[in-house]
Amino acid sequence: MSGLEVEVLGDALPAERVRRACVLAAATAGVEDGHVAVSFVGAERIAALNAEHRGKAGPTDVLSFPVDGATGDVAGARELGDVVICPAQAVDLQEAVVHGVLHLVGMDHETDEGEMLALQAELLAWLR
């Protein structure tokens, strides 16, 4: 596989904008090859996922479901996982994409010292 394959399900944001955001966010972790899926869903669907996977009631803006660890396959390609976004809950869809992909590559704003959110802001400035 050459390059990051981005599968976009839903049309809340143009696929090319989703792809650019995913490629840039993944590249910050040195991930240039692999696959990620980004789905835009309704509030009911994301609320069900939030309850099932995080034990939290109600809808949220973005959820990330990582698949591969840091090693990937022999060729270096990784199945990063899925990013699920609820447009009705997200203030900025492009920010939600970047946020979700940063989680897929191992960042966590709940445990770091602000690095993830600072990087997220920097990436969004590049994308605009």
Main traits of this protein?
alpha/beta; globular; 128 residues
Q: Can you put this structure into words, describing what you see?
A:
This protein has helices at residues 15-27, 43-54, 93-104, 115-127, and strands at residues 4-9, 34-40, 62-66, 78-85. The protein starts with a strand and ends with a helix. It has a 4-stranded mixed sheet with strand order 1-2-4-3, sandwiched between helices. By secondary structure, the protein is α/β, with parallel strands linked by helices. β1, α1 (15-27) and β2 (34-40) form a beta-alpha-beta unit. The chain is 39% helix and 20% strand. The model has no long low-confidence stretch (mean pLDDT 92). The chain contains 4 helices and 4 strands.
In brief, what are we looking at here?
With 128 residues, the protein is of the alpha/beta class. The chain contains four helices and four strands, in the order E-H-E-H-E-E-H-H.
Please report the total strand number as a whole number: 4
> Roughly what fraction of the amino acids lie in strands?
15-25%
CA-atom Rg in angstroms: 14 Å
Order of helices and strands: EHEHEEHH
Structural class: alpha/beta
Describe the secondary-structure layout.
Elements (H helix, E strand, L loop, with lengths): L3 E6 L5 H13 L6 E7 L2 H12 L7 E5 L11 E8 L7 H12 L10 H13 L1
Parallel strand pairs: 1-2, 2-4
Antiparallel strand pairs: 3-4
Helix pairs in contact: 1-3, 1-4, 3-4
